[in-house]
Amino acid sequence: LSEQLGPRETVSMLNEYFERMVDVIMGNKGVLDKYIGDAIMALFGVPFKGSYDADDAVKTANGMFRALRDLNRERADKNQFSLDIGVGISTGDVIVGNIGSPKRLEYTVIGDHVNLASRLEGVTKAYGAKILISEYTMNSLHDDYVLREIDVLRVKGQNTPVAIYEVLDHYSPDQFPHMNDVLRCYLTGYIAMRKRDWQGAQKNFSEALQLHPGDKPSQTHLGRIGYYMENPPDEDWDGVWVMTSK
């Protein structure tokens, strides 16, 4: 993309995007940690931990997509291409402090949950989900959100499997039509898949796609079921999907 736009337009586009996103982060008690190329790393619960840090992070993610929708509408009016993003969130103990060399220190965090959040952002592409949170974040939420379990993953670089969930509150009805019915079919198919009921899972994921052909997680699982039907997993299969790439 930067090759097509050239340096000036790339910087202008990123600044326009970052301005909107940082406003959302700071408006939900988040701390802007750093820019990583075209990515943003944000922290919640530092330097002081709060009871609603996970909620603030999820509200930020939803707010980012609503802000992005407005930005893309403005860009379309100027005949500019739309932007798309993915968000990964995880909650847990991390090491926080000024890290670096005596010549330059940076206030940041390191730890397994930082790595996990980064991995989840990466796998949004694989599942076609916009916001993915770990089970640790889900278990820390106080408010109600529209969530669905997407998978149980063993991400690259970590040995412990983790359940991941998609956050869906940011979708408008025209973006995700028949959401309640789609989620009902999806959940039935997901439960059937974990019980090795391939036919039942295939039926329900197909029904979800009939209601909303753009539901990428249903497409992903439907393709995986086709593989399992031809290559049944071992008897000790635990349903964990291993991600071999970042």
Instruction: Give the ordered list of helices and strands.
Output: HHEEHEEEHEHEEHHHE
Question: Which range does the strand content fall in?
Answer: 15-25%
Category from helices, strands and their pairing: alpha/beta
- Give the overall form: globular
Please bin the fraction of helical residues.
40-55%
Spatial ordering of strands, largest sheet? 3-6-8-7-9
The total beta strand count reads: 9
Largest sheet: 5 strands, mixed
Average pLDDT number: 93
Over the alpha carbons, how many angstroms does the gyration radius reach?
19 Å
Tally of helical segments: 8
- Which residue ranges are poorly predicted, with pLDDT under 50 across at least 5 consecutive positions? none
What's the N-to-C terminus distance? 21 Å
Account of the protein in words:
47% of the residues lie in helices and 20% in strands. With 246 residues, it is an alpha/beta fold. The strands form three sheets. The chain has a five-stranded mixed sheet. The chain is globular. The two termini are 21 Å apart. The mean pLDDT is 93.
